[in-house]
Design goal:
Rossmann fold; single chain; 16% strand; alpha/beta
């Protein structure tokens, strides 16, 4: 099994990275390979609502000149996905949002590519705003019918300078327990294949409220 972690911080080895690494260490103890891709330092345009991905349904975004489609292929192949972001003005990083808006829209309209994969969110913050950012990340997982492991608190770790988060003893424990629970849930899913019939997927019903 493999987990793919997405680092949405502009800093390659900032506190978001350290949070991810704590989770990843627990996964690797259970034999689950973990790869980290660094998204937050890239130039990624947001979704332009062209709906070409709906028309094409080829598991790709039509916008050129970035690595989004390459990352989409890696997400499809992974058994588990970790979304990690710093907090900017009580929200996730802007580049991370641009990527997630495009990636999760493509996956949702292509037969639910991420459905029933295990997904977790982690957030690194200096002081406040961690919970709104955490909720933002979880919205993508919920919309995609992913399976979300938990810890013993919300998945937020605190620190300013790179590496300071490792001094947040409670935050470190949160990430460590999240990694253990994520590994357990991934194994449950894997061992249930062919034994437990998953619920049938339904086509998404769209409504607006203008009549």
């Amino acid at each position: 099994m493999k987990a793919l972690a997405i680092n949405g911080s502009p800093n390659k080895e900032g506190n978001t990275y350290h949070a991810i690494k704590i989770v990843a260490a627990e996964l690797e103890k259970e034999g689950i390979e973990t790869e980290i891709i660094h998204v937050g330092n890239k130039v990624i345009r947001g979704c332009i609502a062209c709906y070409e991905c709906i028309k094409n349904k080829n598991e790709q975004c039509v916008l050129p000149s970035d690595e989004v489609n390459e990352w989409l292929r890696e997400m499809k192949q992974a058994d588990g996905i970790i979304l990690g972001s710093p907090v900017h003005y009580a929200a996730m990083g802007g580049t991370m949002k641009s990527f997630l808006d495009r990636a999760f829209f493509v996956t949702s309209i292509n037969n639910g590519m991420l459905r029933h994969k295990v997904g977790a969110s982690v957030v690194a913050v200096r002081r406040s705003g961690g919970l709104p950012a955490f909720e933002q990340l979880n919205n993508y997982l919920c919309y995609s019918e992913m399976l979300i492991p938990t810890s013993n608190y919300w998945n937020v770790i605190h620190g300013l300078m790179p590496g300071e988060a490792l001094r947040d003893e409670e935050g470190v424990q949160i990430m460590r327990l999240l990694g253990r629970n994520m590994a357990w849930l991934m194994k449950l899913v894997e061992n249930g294949k062919g034994k437990v019939v998953p619920p049938e997927r339904e086509e998404k019903r769209f409504m607006n409220f203008i009549r």
